[in-house]
Task: structure prediction
Amino acid sequence: MTSRTVTLLDVARAAGVSKSTVSDALQGSGRVAEATRDRVRAVAEELGYRPNSAARRLRRASTGAVGLHLPATATRLDYYMNLAFGAVERAQEDGLDMVLLAPSGAAGGRIASRVDGLLVIDPEPGDSAVPGLLDAGVPVVTGERYLGPATGPSGAVVCDNAASLTALLDHVTERGARRPALLAPSGSSAWATALRATAGSWGRAHGVTVTVRTVPFAATPAEAEAATRDLLAADPTVDAVICAPDGSAPGVLRAAAALGRKVGASNASGAGEALGASSASSASSASVASGAAVGPVGAGLLVASCVDGTATRGAEPPVTAVDLHPAAYGRACAELLCDILAGRAAPDTVRRHSWSLETRASTDPPG
Result:
């Protein structure tokens, strides 16, 4: 016997199957092959697994509520507030109340006795509350995948974050940028990891170096301004800045204004003046292929954001951004959890959520 309680994850690892398969096999539910069911039960008996009593009670009698866990920074970001309202609205359609968990979370065993399921949004491997929530003994749906070592969720709703940053980089390049930069989020969430990796892979594919500066996951406008000032002072040939954190774009605009960079007129115009109008086009094309710098100090700067919101729409000029449709995203997460709870969706279901690129004056070409 082991000195600690054997969990579903222990059984899943020993049997070589997913946690949801173990759960279905031990409950006699789900689409599990008989041979797999027998193997799981044998492994569970060998390890001395004992089902969580709170979880078993929960499966027999609904509490009528689901829990919502958001990142600690969520309370000051438009994105998460809109997402939460969307989730609450969709849960209520199935007659479920939404319980907002404290940022520090709650012990999995305790919360499992109070809710039917959990939504865990943008789970960070470094968030100490997440592993307990994922192993609480109730269905869990994450908004974006969890990249940590703990047990996996019952389901997930994911965005193609690599594709959204690719669209932004393609867009600013089409508008004349030759030296794009990214204010990338810190941390190890799926969103942050995808953005940093995509900056490198896009640059290699296009023969262009994408300068990456890491800023806090929920960087304030002041933090974004400081990072942009440092970035442009170190390399004034940067002609496009894409900021990742929600609400940070106004800081990038303030930095540009302080340094005399005109937002909305790309460095391609400055290159044309320096090289001569007749040769500007060929010089710009060559710079894309070689990754060479062409923009002088004081040239235009394109600005875009990985997250749309009030700050980007109300900025001057309005900022091009990826609209992740947070309210619809919250609804999608809650809908998947409701479907799993009602048996309308299988465990481990992964659904895709769409985004759109909203182009605005901050990436308008000169003229």
